[in-house]
Amino acid sequence: MRWFAANKWSNARTLLLAMGPLLLVRLECAAASDWPQFRGPGGTSIYGAADLPIDFDVKTGRNVAWQAPLPGKGPSSPIVVAGRVIVTAASGPRQDRLHVLCFEASTGKLLWHRQFWATGSTVCNSFGGVAAPTPASDGRRVFALFSSSDMVCVDLDGNLLWYRGLGYESPNTRNDVGMASSPLVIGPETVVVQLENLGESFAVGLDAATGADRWRIERPRGSIWSSPIPLRGSTPGEDLVLMHSRQYLTAHEASTGKQVWQYEAFCHTIASAVVLGDRVYLPAIGLHALRYDGQTRTVEKLWYDDRLRSDNCSPVVADNRCYVIKPPNILMCADATDGRTLWQMRLKGPFWATPLLAGQRLYCVNYDGLVQVVQLGEQGKLISACQLEPGVLASPAAADGALYFRTNSTLWKISGSPQ
User: Fold this and answer.
1) Owning domain of residue 107
2) What is the model's pTM?
3) For residue 44, is it left (φ>0), alpha (ψ between -120 and 50) or beta?
4) Torsion sign across C-alpha atoms 210, 242, 29, 46
5) Which DSSP category does 353 fall into?
6) Is the preceding peptide bond at 350 cis, omega within 30 degrees of 0?
7) CA 142/CA 87 separation, integer angstroms
8) What is the distance between the alpha carbons of residues 95 and 32, in angstroms, rounded to a whole number?
9) pLDDT the model gives residue 26
10) Residue 166: what are its φ and ψ, rounded to 5°?
11) CATH code, domain with 67
12) Closest CA to 291 of 246, 337, 230, 241
């Protein structure tokens, strides 16, 4: 067991506790089947195959490939990169011990476990936790952000590359509920972090290799828990970052942070927007559908429907269909071209996790751990309901024919023959 001082971006009190064996093989790029960030590739919550199991039983072990205990709680989702499953946690009476864990996807074996001390505020609502943001990866590195605004960058072997105590650098960046916005890897070597709260609010584009600021912009003061999302251009240099505050959605150049356009709306404070091609679907007292023109770099509203009002989870859009879970636990399907409601059905809730779409099936997991699988079509049909342990705030992940669920105490891999 060895203690290391973090690099120049952290203060002298920040120490790294290195634990566990190192993985011997480093892959330089992410596989197409990876789930590298919050809500998967592009932040869409879409898995590009129909090979996921539709039912399982944790009591008998049917279709349960493995389960792994976690050292602390957290609403952060797992990510899957190059055959590894990576998840964060926080422990201790004040949740000031920060964990990044890596498991072998095929077996569930713990490959490495890194621990850090928080340098920023760990005050948060006990319902959630300090390990709230989902980590992100560019296929070579993992960027783990915590509610304390501590940002950790490790390689796929778990070696520390850099550390930023953003909350230590800006002590007024905090609130009494906690921070939950997840980092976004975008453009050439940029990691975007959105820290909007009641205190000092800003967004920063960090150099992925060094952790140094590429750009930093002020953001409105007001707590927001949604995450930045990518709006892809024709080249990586034309990629935009979308971030919404309480009163508007803004688009920024990924390389400079320069604002390109702004759309005013009373945005949802938890649910994040989603992009499909040149369309942006923004949860804001209903759902706003926007179209982005890459030539003029402007945006126009296509439609708005106040009945498509998200609760806590983000919308999912695919094949000209929008799926929204609205209070009280009603799954709504709408036409993505005009917002017309096509069908709706009631599920068992409450929900915090964003559903996952795979083929013509929508996987919806509620807080009590009930995974409800809905067959999509002209009408929605519940085809399966399977029980995990309760306490599910994290959105599921999927890769290589397997589902990954995270509860407060356990990471689960579900895989088996689809039906």
Assistant:
1) 2-415
2) 0.91
3) alpha
4) positive
5) S
6) yes
7) 10
8) 35
9) 25
10) -65, -30
11) 2.130.10.10
12) 337
Amino acid identity of 13? R
Name the domain count of the chain. Answer: 1
Return the DSSP state at 292.
E
Q: Kindly report, residue by residue over 212-262, the tens digit of the pLDDT.
A: 999 999 999 998 999 999 999 888 889 999 999 999 999 999 999 999 999
Round to whole Å and give the CA distance between 307 and 296.
31
CA-nearest of 374, 384, 385, 304 to 344 is: 374
Q: In which element (H, E) is residue 356 found? A: strand 356-358
Give the pLDDT confidence of 105-164 residue by residue, as tens digits: 999 999 999 999 999 999 998 899 999 999 999 999 999 999 999 999 999 999 999 999
- Residue 3 structure tokens: 């203690």
DSSP string, 224-255: -----EEE--SSGGG-EEEEE-SSEEEEEETT
pLDDT of residue 88: 98
**Of the ranges 30-39, 150-159, 399-408, which one carries the lowest mean pLDDT score?**
30-39
> Residue 95 above 70 pLDDT?
yes
**Cα distances (angstroms) measured from residue 85 to each of 89, 101, 109, 324:** 13, 8, 10, 28
Sheet holding 150-155, edge to edge: 136-137, 141-145, 150-155, 160-165
* pLDDT confidence tier of residue 175, bands split at 50, 70 and 90: confident
Q: What is the pLDDT of residue 418?
A: 60
CA terminus-to-terminus distance, the chain: 47
Query: If residue 167 lies in a helix (H) or strand (E), which one and from where to where?
Result: helix 166-169
**138 strand-pairing partners:** none
Phi, psi of 42, rounded to the nearest 5 degrees: 70, 0
Helix, strand, coil share of the chain (percent; to 5) = 0, 45, 55
Among the listed residues 256, 157, 153, 252, the one whose alpha carbon sits nearest the alpha carbon of residue 210: 153
